[in-house]
Specification:
By secondary structure, this protein is α+β, with helices and mostly antiparallel strands. It has helices at about 35-50, 65-75, 85-95, 100-105, 135-145, and strands spanning about 5, 15-20, 20-25, 85, 120. It contains 5 helices and 5 strands. The chain has a 3-stranded antiparallel β-sheet with strand order 1-2-3, with helices on one face. Strands 4-5 form a two-stranded parallel ribbon.
Length: about 160
């Protein structure tokens, strides 16, 4: 199975392809690197995403899952960049319950491209099984919201010389 890895702010990611479609995004660096046209395009889109661009991941995806998981993952792909939906809202679209949506999210083999990080609890962040868990989910949501880092450079207007 062809794979291609990339460095990201949330850790190394490896994208896998099978029969002309992306089938997985895994944390870590893959052993074999096969730069197919689809994987090169996937990496370029992910690089743009992590550079803060609102990217439409219009890639052929073929996640393996149950019919219910497929319905949930299809609903997730309709959540716009920078937006969130509750587990209950996704359940209203795909069927099931908020808990079953959470289980389907946890089984998502193509995180980020199928944006399970955009699903939040009614009264909080909710869980996340990828990367460093909820910290990774917060980082992805902050990236999409274009929230500046908590500690960073001082804006130029704030660096004016002190008055005497």
């Amino acid at each position: 199975m062809p794979q291609l890895s990339l460095h990201t702010p949330i850790g190394d990611l490896t994208v896998s392809e099978e029969r002309g479609a992306v089938v997985a995004v895994d944390w870590g660096w893959g052993r074999d690197q096969t730069p197919t046209p689809l994987l090169l395009r996937s990496r370029a889109l992910l690089d743009a995403y992590f550079d803060g661009e609102a990217v439409a991941f219009d890639l052929p995806l073929a996640p393996v899952g149950t019919p219910y998981q497929q319905r949930v993952w299809a609903a997730l792909r309709d959540i716009p960049h920078g937006a969130t939906r509750s587990y209950a809202a996704i359940a209203a679209l795909a069927g099931g319950s908020a808990r079953s949506v959470g289980m389907a999210n946890g089984a998502n083999p193509i995180p980020i491209l199928i944006p399970c990080h955009r699903v939040v609890a009614a009264h909080g962040l909710g869980g996340y099984s990828g990367g460093d868990g909820p910290a990774t989910k917060r980082a992805l949501l902050a990236l999409e919201a274009r929230v500046p880092p908590l500690f960073g450079t001082v804006p130029p207007a704030s660096r004016a010389a002190p008055s005497t």
